[in-house]
Amino acid sequence: MRFRTGTTDDVATLWALRTRCVRETCSSHYPPEVIAPWSASPPPVQYERLLAQGGCVVAEDGRGTLLGFGVFDAAGNEVDALFVDPDRGGQGIGQALMQRLLALADPAREVVLSASLNAVPFYQRQGFIAGAEEAYPHPSGVALASVRMHRAV
Q1: For residue 126, what is the DSSP state?
Q2: In CA terms, which of 21, 65, 72, 121 is 20 to 30 Å from 91?
Q3: Cα–Cα distance for residue pair 34/1, rounded to 1 Å
Q4: At a CB cut-off of 8 Å and minimum separation 6, what does 99 contact?
Q5: Which residues make beta-bridge pairs with 115?
């Protein structure tokens, strides 16, 4: 496995993996009427900005096949996204991506994120503490049930 910084040229490929993850992984915790608009939504405008700022880490195998990616928003000291190919879960890819995202964080501030319900146990294993449940206002128009989480760097 190798890691590289994602670029704006990667947006379509990364978003395709994200869409697959929403359909296959998140469907265990969200009903079809939430999954459908969530998975159909286009990449948010901020993705290009965050990738242009170097806030994306991409994991690939030796052939260049996408295994997963994470996006970090330095302004908010926030993990914006972390997705691993559903066929590759449990192989340490997510943990390795998280370590690289945390390396981008400001150590003087807590790192925060809004976790989908299915991802809360993963983030807890990474040292994040669950806060309040919230309704994340997704750009697709649905309010996604999520959990606000935080941890020290």
Answers
A1: T
A2: 72
A3: 33
A4: none
A5: 147
Burial 100-121 (b: 16+ CB within 10 A, else e): ebbebbeeeebbbbbbbeebbe
Sequential pLDDT tens for the chain (153 residues): 999 999 999 999 999 999 999 999 999 999 999 999 999 998 887 888 888 888 999 999 999 999 999 999 999 999 999 999 999 989 999 999 999 999 999 999 999 999 999 999 999 999 999 999 999 877 777 889 999 999 987
Provide the β-strand partners of residue 35: none
Structure-token pair, residue 44:
């948010």
Diameter of the chain measured on Cα atoms: 41
Cβ atoms of residues 35 and 22 within 8 Å: yes
Alpha-carbon Rg for the chain in angstroms: 14
DSSP 125: H
Q: What predicted TM-score, i.e. pTM, was given to this entire model?
A: 0.93
